[in-house]
Design brief:
The complex is a heterodimer of chains A (about 200) and B (about 140). Chain A has about 200 residues and is mainly α. The termini of chain A are far apart. Chain B has about 140 residues and is an all-alpha fold. In chain B, strands 1-2 form a two-stranded antiparallel ribbon. In chain B, helix 1 packs parallel to helix 3. The longest helix of chain B has 23 residues. The termini of chain B are far apart. The chains are: A mainly alpha (about 200), B mainly alpha (about 140). Chains A and B meet through helix 2, helix 3, helix 5, helix 6 and helix 8 of A and helix 1, helix 3 and helix 4 of B.
């Protein structure tokens, strides 16, 4: 059995579970932006991301009265809940239609200028990220954008650190290949590392 | 070529490259226990590790195009907080409060009712009429006794 770890949120969660509105507010203030950011990045849909964030916190409120520190931090557990809700939605979305794919892709029309280039670049990167298998995208999102450590990200994904590394490496390799195909003019030679 | 790291173990070029390929060029994202090993490999001038670092930097820069700051959402926060657990209510507080409210209402009605009581004499006349009816006659209406 894994020993419980020190969790900076444990006391807040217990207080919120006992009906302390200030503790609940502190949890929301601290974690909602990150939960929302993760859901937005995974779903690319602001309204759906809000629904996922709300559902995540509903589950927090349901679990809070009986919360006991376990092998994973509260924040890691919350990321796991968010990711699973996102996976569900992504699966449903795939089942319904792929029609929305590509909406965020780069505008191909000519419109020179730095701002246009920046938008094109961001759109290319978003499209490449969204084209990754969802576990690779989730691993990259947790480690790169959510700034989680490898141990926290692996716990959130319920995999080993080695498996996380494999997801990350495959994800980054796929991104490089995808971006190198279309974005040499926007980003430089991604597959040769010649910018040093 | 193996290089010593902080824990005395060594990190070979392949492992340093694996770390760069998985976590990117920012040392803050590398596994804590292996961070010094990668830095040592770079400091030793390992060309393959340096090339992997350069490649990782380019991809990190591309990913930075999609970076966004976490945003507040006060309306959503308010919705979420409305569903937060409430403090448990005191089990006997509600019935006691209801009892107190009933008593207060009773007193108020009592005092209020007194203000609307019939004038003296009228009540007696009504009472006599009622008994006269019960006796089978219409004494008051007929003016008889």
């Amino acid at each position: 059995m894994t020993a419980p770890i020190s969790d900076p949120d444990a006391a807040l969660v217990r207080s919120a579970g006992a009906g302390d509105k200030r503790a609940a507010e502190a949890l929301v203030r601290k974690h909602l932006p990150r939960v929302l950011g993760l859901a937005r990045r995974m779903l690319r849909d602001a309204a759906a991301a809000e629904d996922v964030a709300q559902e995540t916190f509903l589950r927090v409120w349901r679990s809070a009265p009986d919360w006991t520190p376990g092998p994973a931090k509260f924040e890691t557990w919350m990321h796991r809940v968010t990711l699973n809700l996102c996976y569900d939605r992504l699966r449903r979305r795939r089942e319904v239609s792929d029609a929305e794919a590509g909406l965020d892709r780069a505008d191909q029309g000519p419109n020179p200028g730095d701002a246009w280039l920046a938008r094109q670049r961001a759109a290319q990167v978003r499209a490449a990220l969204d084209a990754l298998p969802e576990r690779q995208k989730a691993a990259l999102t947790l480690c790169h954008f959510q700034e989680m450590t490898n141990i926290e990200a692996a716990a959130a994904l319920e995999i080993s650190v080695e498996a996380l590394e494999s997801l990350l490496a495959r994800g980054r390799r796929a991104l490089r290949a995808s971006l190198a195909e279309t974005a040499n003019d926007l980003m430089g030679p991604l597959d040769h590392g010649q910018t040093e | 070529m193996a290089k010593p790291n902080e824990t005395g173990a060594s990190m070979n070029t392949a492992r340093a490259i694996e770390i760069l390929e998985a976590y990117g060029a920012d040392a803050a994202r590398w596994p804590e226990a292996e961070r010094d090993g990668v830095l040592a490999a770079l400091a030793a001038g390992d060309g393959d590790v340096a090339a992997a670092l350069a490649q990782a930097r380019v991809l990190d820069a591309a990913l930075a195009c999609d970076a966004s700051e976490p945003q507040r959402n006060d309306l959503l926060a308010a919705r979420i907080l409305r569903a937060a657990p409430a403090a448990p209510s005191l089990p006997r507080a509600a019935p006691l409060a209801a009892l107190a409210a009933c008593a207060a209402l009773g007193v108020a009605i009592g005092f209020g009712g007194a203000r609307y009581a019939a004038p003296e004499g009228m009540a007696e006349a009504a009472l006599a009429a009622a008994f006269a009816d019960e006796a089978g006659g219409f004494g008051l209406l007929e003016g008889g006794g």
